[in-house]
Amino acid sequence: MQKYVFSFAASEFVNFRWIEFKSLAEIEQLSYSVSESKDDWLRPYIVVEMENDDSVLSIIKRSVLIKSAFHLWCEAATLSELIQQVANLPNELIDPYLNGCGTFKIVLSSAHKKLKQEEKIPIIETILDAHERIDAQVSLSSPDHQINILLEYTPKNLGKNTISSGGHLCRLLYGRLIGSSIRRNMMNDYRLSERAHLGNTTMNVTLAAIMANVGLCRKSSFVWDPFIGTGSTVIAASVWGSFGGGSDIDYSVLHGIGMSPKAGQDPIPVLTLDGEQIVVEKFVYLGSCISAGGGLSDNINARIVKARTAYDNLGHL
C-alpha cells in the first residue's frame, strides 16, 4: 500500500466527501486504508493508503468532490521538517521524475490562505535545494511530470459555511500529481443553463452527480426515481451507463410544460391509441385528483366538498 493525497474542491458539500469516496471504492472493488474521522474529511487534504496509481485514477475519474490526487512523498508540520524529509527521500522514488530524461514543474498551492507569487517562490526554491541533485529540465507549459507542494493553514475563523483566511501553517505535503477529476467537465456538460426545461425543484448538478456515486450507479444498473421531476438524478446516473426512469405527480414538470425558468415550452403532448386520440379529463394519483394539463383545480374542489361534508356531520354534536 502506498500513501496518496486527495485535495477537495473548496468547502463544497463537505459532508458527502467520505461517503462518496467509500462508495466509489466499493464500485471499483478497491482496498484502502483511511481515517473515518469527520474532522479529517472536513480538511482540504486527506491522506489515503491505496495499492497503486491505477486505483487512485479509478476513484478520481468520476468523483465530483475530489479535485486532484497526488502520490505522497513526505508530510510535515513545519517547513524545516519537510526539508529534512526531502533530503532523505530514496532515489528510486524521485529519480524517474526529477533525474530522468523527462521534464517537470513544481506547483505550490495553499488552503485557507492565499499566497502571493513572491511568497511562493522562496518556499519552492528551498525545497528544490533540499534535493541532493535534480537533472531533469523544467517545463512550465507542458511538463512530463508535475510535483506539488500543498500547504494547509488553520482557518482563522470558522463560521457557518464560511472560512476566513489568515491562520498559521499547520501541514505541508509534498508529492507527485497523479491526476485531476472530471468534475469541471461534467459540471459544464450538464449545467442547468443548457437544459430545455427546469422545474422549481430541479436538483443541483453537483448534488445529482454525488447521489449517482453514492447510489453505486454503474453500467447496466437500473435507477428508478419515484419523484423524478426534471430528471436530474436519472441524467447523472446515465452518465455512468445506468438505465433510468421515474414517475412524478406533477404532469407539467414531467412533460416540460407550464411555468419554468426556461422559455419556449412545448404544448401538451397528444396521447393516441390505435391512431385515435385519447382525452384524459382528470385522474387520481396517490389520492390526489389531477386535472387535465396537470392542474389541481379538481383536487381542490374535491377537498372542499369533503370538508363541507365533514362539517355538516358535526351538526348533531
Mind explaining what this structure looks like?
The protein has helices at residues 17-28, 38-41, 53-60, 79-87, 91-98, 117-130, 183-189, 205-214, 232-239, 251-254, 297-312, and strands at residues 2-8, 32-34, 45-50, 66-76, 103-111, 137-138, 145-153, 157-159, 162-164, 169-180, 222-225, 243-246, 271-273, 276-278, 282-285, 288-291. By secondary structure, the protein is an alpha+beta fold. The chain has two domains: 2-180, 2-Layer Sandwich (VC0802-like); 185-311, no CATH class. Strand 11, helix 9 (232-239) and strand 12 (243-246) form a beta-alpha-beta unit. Helix 1 (17-28) packs across helix 8 (205-214). It is elongated and about 95 Å long. The protein starts with a strand and ends in a 5-residue tail after the last helix.
Q: What string gives the helices and strands in order?
A: EHEHEHEHHEHEEEEEHHEHEHEEEEH
Morphology: elongated
Instruction: Please give the largest β-sheet.
Output: 8 strands, mixed
What is the third-level CATH name, the topology of the largest domain? Answer: VC0802-like
The strand count comes to 16
First and last CA, distance? 77 Å
Give the strand order of the largest sheet, numbering strands 1, 2, ... along the chain: 2-3-1-4-10-7-5-6
Radius of gyration: 28 Å
The number of distinct structural domains comes to: 2
Low-confidence stretches: 159-164, 262-268
Structure class: alpha+beta
CATH class of the largest domain: Alpha Beta
| Beta-strand residue percentage | 25-35%
Output mean pLDDT: 79
Q: How many alpha or pi helices?
A: 11
Helix content: 25-40%
Q: Would you identify the CATH architecture of the largest domain?
A: 2-Layer Sandwich
Protein name: tRNA (guanine(10)-N(2))-methyltransferase TRMT11 N-terminal domain-containing protein
GO molecular function: methyltransferase activity
Pfam families: Tmrp11_N
Organism: Schistosoma mattheei
